[in-house]
Write a structure and sequence with these properties.
The chain has about 500 residues and is α/β, with parallel strands linked by helices. Among the domains are: about 35 residues; about 150 residues, Nucleotidyltransferase, domain 5, CATH 3.30.420; about 160 residues, no CATH class. The chain has 22 helices and five strands. It has a five-stranded mixed sheet with strand order 3-2-1-4-5, sandwiched between helices. Helix 9 runs parallel beside helix 10. The model has no long low-confidence stretch (mean pLDDT about 90).
């Protein structure tokens, strides 16, 4: 093909002046890939304050052999808010030690050790183990206490899984047979004949009004990060229709993937199953369980999920959800307790060192911020680390109650003294450069491990290209850089090249 192209010119090229050997082309391509990857690495500037993300998955190489690959990335301003891939090594196993060692090696190779202030990770025991978990190991290797940022998507996925197990029992295998049955019968469903959710409880009626207002604001804000994925928009639209506030001519998407790895599959499928339960001919017991499920999902869970990527709102949202679940016990004790059991194991954003993220939130009231500022200024510090005791939360707990000497950790990690603006009135905070620096840092922080999952997706796309690990690492760096340069193939983008 190369020779045909060369000879098609006017005048035709002299083949003796060109190298068309496939082996030579392959060697030169490999050499060029190394050069590009080395250039990317040599010009890399670590973020000012970085959060490390990692995730692992077993995948096959070009020979069909299975390897346990780990994606290691770092996120942070100014240049890597969306995350930068550092490495994609193979690890011998999925233990906390192996993951920590691989992550530490990548940080050292890219000179990122000093800038790390936090770790964002999935809620697996290999990561969270108090003695041998990867988080604990990394803190020991880096010789400093770090912000522990459990992936908010993973935590909330565990919450809905706990409620689903309570109502429908344990599932086995990679998917749910109930979802498979509903998808197989979808073509027989009349989409203009669906049920909405009756809400009779006075408190829940107020919750419903708040949820509708919240979803309407999110849907109107098309640039909101909650709607980067189509699933999130579908969940918002379904919830609005379920609460009888959707469009007059509703449209339902055909049910898609329902495996457990798809974040929103449970919410989407359970909602559709309830809305079309009359046509699906479920018995009374099944219909009642579906109603209990979607009541929890639409009124408590969906608003929490759609707000989960917002780091500044994370403590406030977790406290609100926890306290709403305590109150929800009077409505559905079994469902509330199932969700609370999971949440009590994952109170990371209500810990002293992370609860101060709320100082940068627009959703937190001025009174709560003022109380938090007073509570923080009254604590000994700024050298205190606090302890590792899980916070106690009840229906009367406020954000200020969760502040202690450990709350100074975040400010110490980013070399910022907040005393000056904390002592001012709230109306003066925005005029303080130190506060604006803190606010911008918090709002750009990543508290969902989607960064690492995108890294895993990138590795999966190219793991079968070559059996040579060094070559794969170079290819991944090239592809990532190319995607940053050309994020889409729209005309507007291509015209800028």
């Amino acid at each position: 093909m190369v020779s045909a192209v060369l000879r098609s010119g006017r005048p035709p090229a002299n083949l003796n002046e060109f190298t068309i050997s496939t082996m030579t082309a392959n060697r030169r391509r490999s050499s060029h890939q190394r050069e590009v990857a080395d250039l990317i690495k040599s010009t890399f500037v670590p973020p000012l304050y970085g959060v490390v993300h990692w995730d692992g998955k077993i995948m096959k190489d070009s020979l069909g052999l299975a390897d346990h690959r780990q994606a290691i990335l770092i996120s942070g301003a100014p240049d890597h808010v969306g995350g930068k891939l550092l490495a994609a090594p193979t690890v011998s196993d999925g233990t906390g030690l192996s993951q920590a060692e691989a992550t530490m090696t990548a940080l050292q190779q890219w000179n990122c050790e000093d800038c790390v202030i936090g770790l964002c990770y999935d809620t697996t025991s290999s990561n969270t183990g108090k003695v041998k978990g990867a988080v604990k190991r990394l803190e020991e290797m880096l010789d400093k206490k770090l912000l522990r940022l459990e992936c908010r998507h993973h935590v909330l996925e565990l919450v809905v899984k706990g409620v689903a197990t309570e109502l429908f029992g344990q599932t086995t295998g990679p998917s749910d047979s109930k979802f498979e049955d509903m998808r197989s019968r979808w073509t027989d469903i009349h989409q203009d004949d669906f049920k909405t959710l009756p809400v009779s409880d006075t408190w829940l009626q107020q919750v419903r009004a708040d949820v509708v207002q919240h979803l309407q604001a999110l849907i109107a804000d098309r640039g909101n990060q909650a709607f980067i994925r189509d699933d999130y928009r579908e969940v918002a639209d379904l919830t609005m229709m379920l609460l009888d506030t959707g469009p007059q001519q509703p449209r339902f998407r055909r049910p898609g993937a329902y495996h457990h790895a798809r974040w929103m599959s449970k919410v989407i499928y359970f909602t559709k199953m309830y809305m079309f339960s009359n046509q699906l001919n479920y018995d009374d017991d099944m219909t009642l369980h579906l109603q209990r499920m979607v009541q929890f999902l639409s009124l408590l869970y969906v608003p929490a999920w759609l707000s989960s990527p917002m780091p500044a709102d994370a403590p406030r949202n977790d406290l609100l959800l926890f306290q709403n679940l305590l109150r929800y016990r009077k409505v559905d004790k079994a469902v509330a307790n199932a969700a609370l059991t999971v949440m009590r194991r994952h109170m990371g954003y209500l810990r002293p060192e992370t609860v101060v993220l709320s100082l940068a939130s627009d959703a937190v009231s001025d009174a709560d911020k003022t109380a938090m500022a007073s509570a923080l200024l009254s604590q000994p510090g700024p050298d205190g680390d606090g302890d590792d005791v899980a916070p106690f939360v009840d229906s009367d707990t406020s954000l200020a109650d969760l502040v202690d000497e450990g709350s100074w950790l975040l400010f110490r990690l980013i070399n910022l003294d907040p005393s000056q603006w904390l002592s001012k009135s709230l109306s003066e905070w925005e005029g303080d450069e130190s506060y604006r620096r803190y606010r911008d840092f918090v709002r750009n922080m990543k508290v969902c491990n989607d960064v690492a999952e995108r890294g895993i997706a990138l590795i999966q796309a190219y793991a079968s290209v070559t059996k040579v690990d060094e070559k794969l690492q170079c290819i991944l760096q090239e592809v990532e850089a190319h995607r940053r340069k050309i994020p889409s193939f729209e005309k507007q983008m291509l015209n800028t090249l």
